[in-house]
Amino acid sequence: MWNLKSRLLLFAIKSFGRQPWWLLHIESSILASVMSSLGGYRKKIVTDNITRVLGQGMAPRLSKDFYTNFCDISFESMKMFSASDQEITDRVTYSRSGLQLMNRLYAERRVVILAGGHMANWEMYAMTFSQKIPFETMALYKKLSDPMINEEMKISRERLGLKMVEISESKKWMDDHIASHENSHIAIGFGFDQSPSNPYKSWWTKFLGVETAVYFGMEKWAKEYNAAVVYGAVKRVGRGRYDVDFRLVKEHAVESDKGEIIDRCLGELEREIKDAPADWLWSHKRWKHNRPAEMVVQQRRFECKLDS
Fold first, then answer.
1. Tens digits of residue pLDDT in 200-213
2. pTM score, two decimals?
3. Is residue 111 classed as helix, strand or coil in its secondary structure?
4. Is 74 within 8 Å of 120 (Cβ atoms)?
5. CA distances from 228 to 102, 136, 214, 224 (A)
6. What sign for the dihedral angle of Cα 85, 87, 88, 90?
7. Which of 141, 146, 186, 145 has the alpha carbon at shortest distance from 165?
8. Burial class of 190 by CB neighbour count within 10 A (0 to 12, 13 to 18, 19+)
9. Rounded to 5 degrees, what are φ and ψ at 121?
């Protein structure tokens, strides 16, 4: 039964995504209007998160803009199954300075940690960066609950050269890769702005002015492999069109203080949210954990305040 349901769902997703981009965006606008007025996906979470960070007065307007972003990336993700490789790469532009940075790090035979948040259409960025930089590329991901859809999604997202490795298998994959490649040229994509599962094993700090548990794994990897840490900032410049800018966070991770890399990356994400608040994933249960009494809130040194 589940196999049949999965096949039907996958057929529906692929069929819907075969529509032209312009029609998908018209339909996205209609659905976003309905969701923002009548109650959309995780509406209470969206409203509560915006209110927590920006105040109640911002919630109605920003939630409406958020649902436009949310519907756009949802429909564009369906389009990824049928869009040609050229269509996708033509819609994501990379800054010259960012590519120069990545080319230099490649020439220096560095391991690179590519940090990023859930801004705009991060999936189109994740799909295309392997085409734009000379590195072998890998990204960590969490498996979908439906095995068939998960496999189809993985095949679709890997077709431009990105290797996707499930989180629980990623450390072994990385160690095996390093061991078998003496001069490894690899860039690893980390999405670091989701809520950790265990608040007792998290890095607690302020993010967007709110006490927040943060995954520490990205910094741990960066120091273990003495990686260069680069932030990938994604900006929407039109419906279904995005600019990406690679920004150096830390040249040598081992030379940073504990928590510095997390702090700097959070600052970059805050800067993105300040510039385009509706493009962040406000529907995520970012603040579902309360800080355990024994966990200390770490001070910020590189915070970007939204009201500054």
1. 999 999 999 999 99
2. 0.94
3. coil
4. no
5. 10, 15, 20, 11
6. positive
7. 141
8. buried
9. -95, 85
